[in-house]
Amino acid sequence: AQKVTQAQTEISVVEKEDVTLDCVYETRDTTYYLFWYKQPPSGELVFLIRRNSFDEQNEISGRYSWNFQKSTSSFNFTITASQVVDSAVYFCALSDPEGNKLTFGGGTRVLVKP
Amino acid sequence: EAQVTQNPRYLITVTGKKLTVTCSQNMNHEYMSWYRQDPGLGLRQIYYSMNVEVTDKGDVPEGYKVSRKEKRNFPLILESPSPNQTSLYFCASTPSRQRTSYEQYFGPGTRLTVT
Q1: Which residues of A68-95 are buried (b: 16+ CB within 10 A; e: fewer)?
Q2: Which among A35, A92, B1, B56 is least buried, having the fewest CB atoms inside 10 angstroms?
Q3: Which chain A residues are Cβ-neighbours of B101 within 8 angstroms?
């Protein structure tokens, strides 16, 4: 069975601080896919990134960066120089090899104060 | 505009009164799925469908039914709702052959309260 753990339930920072969200996953599959989604206060789910299990290269997109470490089964997400608009709930998710089942973590609420 | 729509967006009902939440996508996606979101638990998959007339259980299917008679629609049916089904529900879709390559497109959510 797959499992995703986001140990941090809530993180509060002051604007311009960096914030790192932890994601640890469990799976028996050798092929799998990892995702991050953002859920702003308006409620919709916004896709941020997808990573497959064979690609351990870290990725940077603007102020966002992701650190995938297969050895520790972690896929952490860092927001650099946070802004108030980054306030949201962030979900890490794990897909089975066929992409049929998507398992989400419990989410981390990020509050960025001005 | 490519989108996934859900109706209703908000629903308050009573225990035992059958209800249906509709989900429709206009992207010709083969794969569709339903999730429920509860505080601290993230999103949990209820049912998914790989194509017309092909459905399978997710992690929390008890108390729910689905049908997929047309490619664009994937309704979620609660035949006898109970208070523990009070939740925020999301429908999602993705092109089947790209399930593992692309993100799922989520609908806006339906907030259901069962009293």
Answers
A1: beeeebbbbbbbeebeeebbbbbbbbbb
A2: B1
A3: 50
pLDDT in tens, chain A (114 residues): 899 999 999 999 999 999 999 999 999 999 899 999 999 999 999 999 888 888 888 888 899 999 999 999 999 999 999 999 999 999 999 998 877 888 999 999 999 999
Q: Do B99 and A4 touch (CB under 8 A)?
A: no
CA B64 to chain centre: 10
- Chain A interface includes B89 (CB < 8 A): no
3-state secondary structure B63-99: CCEECCCCCCECCEEECCCCHHHCEEEEEEEECHHHC
CA distance A45 to A51: 18
User: Residue A74 belongs to what H/E stretch?
Assistant: strand A74-79
